[in-house]
Design brief:
By secondary structure, the protein is of the alpha/beta class. It is 45% helix and 13% strand. A five-stranded parallel sheet has the order 4-5-6-3-7, covered by helices on one side. Strand 5, helix 4 and strand 6 form a beta-alpha-beta unit.
């Protein structure tokens, strides 16, 4: 087994919900540490942001189960007024669009009643297109921690996990080959694994480097 693949398998795991594992690597270690720090969050809030499929929602669910938090969509923030006393609340995909007056009213409520709130988003709060200056400044005051793009070791581990979820056995050589030839993003790992699974099923054979070469070329990646 190559050194790169050995690093992938050496990554620690965090058990989350069901049988899924959260892979801990340098790109997400700060986010994990801040979730573990709860309830000691400055101002009672935490924002975790990062690219699609980076594990934000997965990590948020770990916190939600631990804190017994309620989950609300941004569009349902008006329902936060029904919460009594200190509360724990998860709001996912905040920068997908939020009703600003309701969000400001929610933050006012949180400031009075206390508790904890965790927000997830793709971008940092400083880049959310908010019209209300007071809302923007208050959100920027919350602790915000990023999940960065995966390094090669995590990318390889993600491929192993995606194939494992599909109950597909893939050799370390194939993992190494694909890792070196896809974009360094969480979404690229998921897309490559799905495409290779479909191609292998259609061909009725195992995933080999030759098959990976053809599939990645079809996805627009380098053939070699």
């Amino acid at each position: 087994m190559s050194k790169g693949n050995q690093l992938a398998f050496d990554l620690p795991h965090r058990t989350a919900f069901g049988r899924e594992d959260f892979l801990i690597a340098p790109c997400n270690a700060d986010a994990v540490a801040w979730v573990d720090r709860w309830p000691d969050w400055p101002k009672g809030g935490l924002v975790v942001y990062g690219p699609p499929q980076s594990g934000k929602t997965h990590l948020a669910t770990v916190w939600q189960m631990r804190a017994q938090a309620r989950s609300l969509a941004p569009a349902d923030l008006g329902a936060a007024g029904d919460l009594a006393g200190p509360f724990a609340l998860l709001i996912d995909d905040v920068d997908a669009g939020i009703p600003e007056p309701q969000f400001k009213a929610f933050l006012d409520l949180h400031a009075v009643r206390g508790g904890s709130v965790m927000l997830t988003a793709i971008n940092a709060p400083a880049h959310w297109p908010l019209a209300l200056a007071d809302l923007s400044s208050r959100l920027r005051a919350l602790t915000a921690v990023a999940i960065a793009p995966p390094d090669p070791a995590l990318l390889a581990a993600l491929l192993v996990k995606h194939f494992g979820d599909r109950q597909i056995a893939v050799t370390p050589e194939v993992i190494e080959y694909v890792t070196a030839r896809i974009d360094r993003t969480f979404a690229a790992a998921a897309k490559a694994a799905a495409a290779l699974d479909v191609a292998a099923l259609r061909a009725g054979r195992a995933i080999t480097i030759a098959l990976a070469r053809a599939v990645l070329a079809g996805l627009g990646g380098p053939a070699d």
